[in-house]
Amino acid sequence: MTEAVTPPPSREPVEPPVLDERVLDQPAATGAPAVTAAEIRDGAAVALLVGVAGVLLGLLWVWLSPRLQYVSNGQAVFLKDTESEARIGSDGTFLLLSAGLGALSAAATFLWRRAGGVPLVIGLALGSVFAALVGWRLGLWLGPSSDLVARAKAAGEGVPFDAPLQLLAYGVLLVWPMAAVAVHLALTALFTPRDPAPVAPWAAAYPPPHVHADPTPDPRP
Hints:
By secondary structure, this protein is mostly helical. It contains eight helices and three strands, in the order αααββαααβαα. It is elongated, with a radius of gyration of 35 Å. The two termini are 21 Å apart. Residues 26-30 have low confidence and may be disordered.
């Protein structure tokens, strides 16, 4: 007698895993995205324009700062009002103007490009620091002279005259860059569309489910 030989169950052909094209198009997984020349030019343009805006800070500081007055008795120069708050009012005016101009420069930068980016933020920060320095020095130059002896002689004995502008707290020079960077980052986080999540390479290269499926059972008894 011959024994019937049962043919082996048929198996579906195994297809090789296919890589997702999105993985091939992505940059290196661990490296940061490359900075383009256009982004560097945008950052430089922002730094230049914001730095020039420091002229506006200097003009507004001279115009809006409260005036501290001195008076001379012919031998020495004294404060006209020893209880005046104009001395710290100059710092407060510079602080408020810097905060407002910092927010405006950040909003203008965001509306111009509507995107983030390291070069843009660096350009905004550097331009803001330069603008604060320009506004400070320009305000000192445009304000009353710091030569009190000459001004006391020119005014005459007992005649009050304006004191020169000055900053008592140099930390206010950082208000513009801090406000600009903070507002720009907030606008970018709120109104910039987020990038799609990257596809993990191992997830895309993993074989499709049917490769590991059980072989098709033989319908014959």
